[in-house]
Design brief:
With 272 residues, this protein is of the alpha/beta class. The chain is 28% helix and 19% strand. It has helices at 24-30, 32-39, 83-90, 118-121, 156-166, 194-203, 213-221, 234-240, 260-271, and strands spanning 10-17, 42-49, 63-66, 97-99, 107-109, 113-115, 139-142, 172-174, 187-188, 206-210, 225-228, 248-251. Strands 9-8-7-10-11-12 form a 6-stranded parallel sheet, sandwiched between helices. Strands 3-2-1-4 form a 4-stranded parallel sheet, covered by helices on one side. Strands 5-6 form a two-stranded antiparallel ribbon. Helix 8 links the parallel strand 11 and strand 12. It starts with 9 loop residues before the first strand and ends with a helix.
């Protein structure tokens, strides 16, 4: 990607954005786009986020600094990190404005009302593209197995039953981190870099899984995805977190625990 050019820059103004150590999906749709927009008004932009997330900011960030904070202990916005370590990291960074992560105005109240403000709408997105990992799959699956929100996970045996049905006709890759199941009959692509993940998502027909970060990334890659959860996420996938109008098949009739055969039939429809 080429660095974005800015018509209006404020001389000697340096934006320091971060640290972001919260959830991946919220970083995609409630942070990086906002920082990209703000960067156009600064001479220089410095970003602090997790190791491996540099790719998300490379089109506009002049510097990228890594703050190591475990995902499992991070809350949605700031996460649990040592203020001492943060101060040490920032000690030699010169900046004129520090933008700390905050809720920029998207949420759901009482599981019914979507809350947004102007900050959420003041974001610039780019469609992520990469060609670093030339692997082609019909289907990429994120088989969520997180400790946090474990009630949203699908049973391992159900995942394997679905794979057994799909592998007869389709090539399959498994994406995510160690917090994703390994499944027989699918190639293990867990823990690859975000740049490589974007590359395989760009080349696949359909990304499948419960509501999670990799499914949100598929939206910003312009890749069709099949996602299931309860109905509170429907507008988020189809509208609010879908700036490019990416094709999404959202299934919520059975909540987070759908029947294997029903899900298989819905996925076949999505692939047709």
């Amino acid at each position: 990607m080429e660095k974005l050019t800015n018509n209006i820059k404020l001389n000697n103004n340096i934006l320091l954005a971060g640290p972001w150590v919260g959830e991946f999906g919220w970083e995609l749709f409630c942070w990086q786009g906002y920082v990209r927009r703000l960067s156009k008004s600064y001479e220089k932009t410095i970003v602090i986020s997790r190791a491996g997330h540099e790719f998300l900011y490379q089109d506009f960030a002049d510097e990228y600094h890594i703050l190591d904070a475990p995902t499992s202990k991070a809350n949605m916005w700031l996460g649990e990190f040592s203020q001492f370590d943060l101060n040490l990291l920032m000690y030699n960074i010169k900046y004129t404005h520090h933008l700390k992560p905050f809720n920029i105005g998207f949420g759901i109240s009482n599981n019914t009302t979507v809350i947004m403000n102007n900050a959420f709408n003041q974001q610039d997105y780019v469609k992520y593209e990469s060609n670093t990992l030339k692997k082609d799959f019909d289907i990429l699956i994120h088989a969520r197995n997180k400790i946090v929100g474990s009630n949203r996970n699908w049973d391992l045996n159900k995942w394997q039953s679905l794979i057994n049905l799909l592998k007869r006709d389709f090539s399959i890759g498994i994406i995510g981190t160690d917090e994703a199941f390994v499944l027989k009959g699918a190639e293990d692509l867990r823990n690859i870099s975000i740049e490589n993940l974007v590359s395989v998502i760009n080349r696949t027909r359909l990304v499948i899984g419960q509501s999670s970060g990799p499914l949100h990334l598929a939206s910003l890659c312009g890749t069709p995805h099949f996602v299931w959860s309860d109905n509170t996420n429907k507008e988020r996938y189809e509208k609010h977190w879908n700036p490019f109008g990416t094709k999404v098949h959202f299934y919520s009739k059975e909540g987070w625990n759908p029947n294997v055969n029903t899900l298989y039939e819905e996925i076949i429809k999505a692939l047709s």
